[in-house]
Amino acid sequence: MNAFSNDKAVWHIARIDELRKGHDIIPTHVQLIISDLCNQNCHFCAYRMDGGFSTEQFADENGNKNPVRFMPTVKAKEILDDCARLGIAAVQFTGGGEPTVHPDCYELIEYAQKLGLQTALVTNGVRLKPHACIENLTWLRISVDAGTPETYEAIRQSKAWNKVMKNLEYAGTLKKPLVGVGFVVTRENYKELVQCAKFVKECGIPYLRVSAMFSEGGALYYVGIEDEIKKQSVEANLLQDDSFKIINFFNDRVRDLTQGRPDYKFCGTQQFVLYIGGNQKIYTCCTNAYTKHGEIGDLTNQRLSVWLYANRRFDFDATGCHHCQFNDKNRAINWMLTEPDHVNFV
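Above: the chain's sequence. Below: its structure in token form.
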């Protein structure tokens, strides 16, 4: 699936030209977190887990790691208005928390679509329901992360398995959005990758996206279970056909964890993708979300359009990040910004 290509920036060559000149660009895509509250409690959540990278500014003033914090609907619509006016083409409703917990989630997705924005939704699927705005998404990904109801309940602290399975069946009937299921490999679920792939395929969903858990434990978290993960991956790949694919980023993410700090300075991904938290602060990316290091703006008392033109931080140094899950994208962008030797000898 070329939807997951690391080279999409080349299709935005005018923006690449601006970056070559040392200018900030208008992003192509905003990740909008409208809810920091979640109706589940995944132990591997980067915003809530002990040892997570994005907990610094996430908890409320009482230390609650599941804060009842929603982006005001008026502010969210203001941001969407600015996106449409500025030429930002796409908005991804994601977490943070669970987007569908926001009381106006479906209204906001529909509002974005009426503005002509391409929309995407990342959800745990518990509150997914038939709606015109869901049918008009560009893509939809449902996080499941388990192959059995017992493991699902253990790692997500939720008894919603049956409900989510029913909602997966609904998602499998959708015609317009590219629908997928997310599976973050953990020590609790790594033997269930094949089981998950089987029922995802049976639901008529086109792909299963496999990734790794990001925590202070890094790649060491997976020591001792690598062989079984590989075995599960090989077996899951055998389920692939023209209508179902395994999009496996596990090894790439483990490589990123092993590397640690980026070996390049310029972070191009943050120029193309803007992350706006439920606390109305702007961060360089989801990896640096809710951290002082990653904070580059605050929309509490200003519009996105004002910040984009007045307060950008172009000199952000990627080598200060503890790790990066966008290394391949950043390397591709950096390559496009640096003229190769003998460039005309194509």
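The chain has two domains: 1-19+27-123+266-338, 129-259.
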